[in-house]
Amino acid sequence: MALLEEPIKEVMQLKNFIAGEWVESKGELQDVVNPATCQPLARVPMSTRDEVNAAVQAAREAFPDWRRTTPLARVRCLFRLKELLEEHFEELSRVQTQEHGKTIDESRGETRRGAEMVEVATGIPSLMMGYNLEDIASGIDEYVIYQPLGVFCHIAPFNFPFMVPLWFSPFAVATGNTFVVKPSPRDPISQVKLAELIDESGFPPGVYNLVQGGAEAALALLEHPDVKGATFVGTTGIGKDVYRKCGETGKRAIVQASAKNFLLVMPDASVQGTMPALMTSFFGNTGQRCLSGANLVIVGDDDAFYRKFLDAFVNTASRIRVGYGLDESIQMGPMQSLDGKKRVLGYIEKGIAEGARLVLDGRKPAVIGGYPDDHFLNPTVFVDVMPDMAIATEEIFGPVACVLRVKNLDEAIEMVNSSNFGNASSIFTSSGKAAREFQYRVETGNVGINLGIVAPMAFFPFSGMKDSFFGTLHGQGRDAVRFFTESKVVVQRWL
Amino acid sequence: MADVVEKRRVHCARRHVSVFVVRWDNGSFSIKCSLLKACGDSCPYLENPDYKSEFRSSPEYKPG
After folding, report:
1. Going residue by residue through chain A (495 aa), what tens digit of pLDDT does each one get?
2. Model pTM?
3. Is residue B43 part of a domain?
4. Do residues A44 and A14 make contact, with C-beta atoms less than 8 angstroms apart?
5. Cα–chain-centroid distance for residue A82?
6. With an 8 Å Cβ cutoff, are A105 and B59 in contact?
7. Does B51 map to a domain?
8. Contacts of A83 in chain B (CB under 8 A)
9. Which domains does chain A have, with CATH numbers?
10. Cβ within 8 Å of residue B37, ≥6 positions away
11. Distance in angstroms (rounded) separating the CA atoms of residues A121 and A110
C-alpha cells in the first residue's frame, strides 16, 4: 500500500511557548526519531529550571485577568480551538503516527478523543455551577462557589502524546486556571502543533504555556511554589515520586500510573464476537497503553473451549500486519523507543526462563514495507502462565499477551484483585449475572463488559485504583472540574 | 418535494465520527455530517454513499 504523505518533512527545531511567544531554549538538544523509519524528525530542548520558572511566571501573571474573564468568554476560545482541531485533524493525526509509531487509524482515534475533551469542557458554564440552600437557619442562606486556583501543570507520557494532556488542559483553562504542559521529550511534536492552534484560538498570552524537557523540567514544575496542582500520567515508580513531591509542596495531584489489565473470557463468550476486541486490546498501540490487555484469563474446565479460543487468539494475532502506520493497511506499528523494545525483549526472556510456553514469538519481526526492524516487534503470546510469574504481575508495556487458565469466576476475580495494579479489567460473557458479579467485586477503576479497552469518555472520569492511581479526583469530566476548582462556601444573613 | 427513502448512520473511519447517509426517492443522496465543511471534497461518502473503508484495525477471525 502507498504511504500517506508525511506532514513533517524537515527536522524541526522545537521551542517553548511562553506568554504567547515561541521562545528558544538554552537547554541541551535531543533527537526525536520516527520509530518506524529511524529518521530524525526534530530536535527537542531539555529546558532549564529558569525557563520552566519563566513559563510558570507567565501563567501566574495571566491568571488574575483570566479568572475574571466570564466562563462564556473563556469557552469561546475552546469552541474556536475545536474548529481548528477539525480543520487540522488529519495533519495532527499523521504527526502522531510519525513521532510515536502508532497506526494512522489509532492516531485518528486519539485526535478524536482529544477533541472530545475540548467539546466537553465547553460546557463549563453549566459544569462549574455551585449550589445553594435557603434558610439553613432562620433568615440565613448558604451556597458554594467553585473558584479556580491558579497555575496547574501537566507532565505528559509518550504513549498518547496528543490526547493525554487534553484530559486536563481544557478543563483547567475553562474553569479559569492557567496551564503549563511539559510533553514527553520522546514525541513532543503534536503538542507543539496543538499549542500553535491554541495560540490561534484567542487565548490571552500566558494562559497556556508549553515547556519542552525531561526530568529536570518536570522537577522544576513540581517544586515551583506557584504551581497549585500537577497532573501526571506515567509509570507507578515515577508516579509515586510525583505524588510525594506534590504532598511536600502542598499541591493537588492526579497521578495516573502503570497497569496490568486482566481480560476474562467466560465459557459462554462468543469466540467470533470477542476476537476483534481482544486483538485491539492486547496489540493496539503496540501494547503501549495503560488500558491494554495484558493477561488473558480463560475461565472454566472445558478443554475443548480453551483450545478453540486459544487457537483463534494465536491465529488471529499471528496475522496482524506490522509496519509503518502511515500505510493504512498496517494494524500494528513499532515500539516507540528502543528502550521500550529492550524492556519487552527482557520480559519475553524472563517468561521463557520462568517456564511459560511461548506459542507466538514476536522477537524476529516481519515488517511490511522493508523498514528497519530496530523498533519493531510482532505480537507475542505466552501460554501456561502462572499467576506469580513476573510476566503475569509486572507491566510489560508491549505487544505481549499472557494466557492464564482458572476454574471459575471466583478464582478469576481473586486473581485480578491480587494484582498490585487496578487500572482496568474486562469480562467477556453472555451472562448478565456473571458480568454483574464481576463488576461488583473487581478492584479496578475501569471495568469493561464485552469490551477490550475500557476508555472512559470525556464526560466520565478516567478512573484507576491501587498502584495505578494516586489522588482523589480523576481526570476528565466532573472530576476534572472539581480538581481544578476550590469550593468556597458562603453563609449569609442580611440584617 | 422528494421523500426520504433511507437514512443510515455509518462510522466514518477517517474522522471517527457518526455520519448520516440520506437517500431520496428521486435517486439523489445527501451526507449529513457536522464535519462536512472541514472535510470538503475529501469526504469519501460524497463520492460513494456506500463507501466502506477497505482497512481493518485487526485481522478477521477465521473459524477453523
Report:
1. 789 999 999 999 999 999 999 999 999 999 999 999 999 999 999 999 999 999 999 999 999 999 999 999 999 999 999 999 999 999 999 999 999 999 999 999 999 999 999 999 999 999 999 999 999 999 999 999 999 999 999 999 999 999 999 999 999 999 999 999 999 999 999 999 999 999 999 999 999 999 999 999 999 999 999 999 999 999 999 999 999 999 999 999 999 999 999 999 999 999 999 999 999 999 999 999 999 999 999 999 999 999 999 999 999 999 999 999 999 999 999 999 999 999 999 999 999 999 999 999 999 999 999 999 999 999 999 999 999 999 999 999 999 999 999 999 999 999 999 999 999 999 999 999 999 999 999 999 999 999 999 999 999 999 999 999 999 999 999 999 999 999 999 999 999
2. 0.97
3. no
4. yes
5. 20
6. no
7. no
8. 38
9. 12-257+468-493 (3.40.605.10), 261-449 (3.40.309.10)
10. none
11. 17
Look at residue B20 and tell me if it is in a domain: yes
Q: Tell me whether A272 touches chain B (CB under 8 Å).
A: yes
| Nearest alpha carbon to residue A365 among A328, A389, A335 | A335
In our burial notation (b when 16+ CB lie closer than 10 A, e otherwise), range A397-420 reads bbbbbbbbbbeebeebbebbeebe
Work out how many domains chain B is built from and give that number.
Answer: 1
> What is the distance of C-alpha A317 from the center of its chain?
24
Q: Is A290 a catalytic residue?
A: yes
DSSP state of A234: S
Mutate to test the interface with A, among B34, B39, B53, B61 (most CBs of A within 10 A): B61
Query: Helix crossing, A271-283 with A303-318: angle to 10°?
Result: 50
Hunting for cell 472530576 — which residue is that? A479
Q: What is the C-alpha to C-alpha distance for residues A356 and A168, in angstroms, rounded to an integer?
A: 40
Q: CB of A330 within 8 A of CB of A105?
A: no
Which residues of A fall within a CB distance of 8 Å from B15? Answer: 89, 108, 112
Q: Tell whether A325 is within 8 A of chain B (Cβ).
A: no
Domain coverage including residue B30: 4-38
Residue B33 lies in a domain: yes
- Contacts with B31 (C-beta within 8 Å, 6 or more apart), sequence order: B19, B20, B21, B22, B43, B45, B46, B49
d(CA B24, nearest CA chain A) in Å: 29
Distance from CA of A331 to the nearest CA of B (A): 5
Residues 162-221 of A with CB under 8 A from B: none
Nearest to A319 among B13, B54, B59 (CB): B59
Could you give the CA distance from residue A404 to residue A284 in angstroms, rounded to a whole number? 20
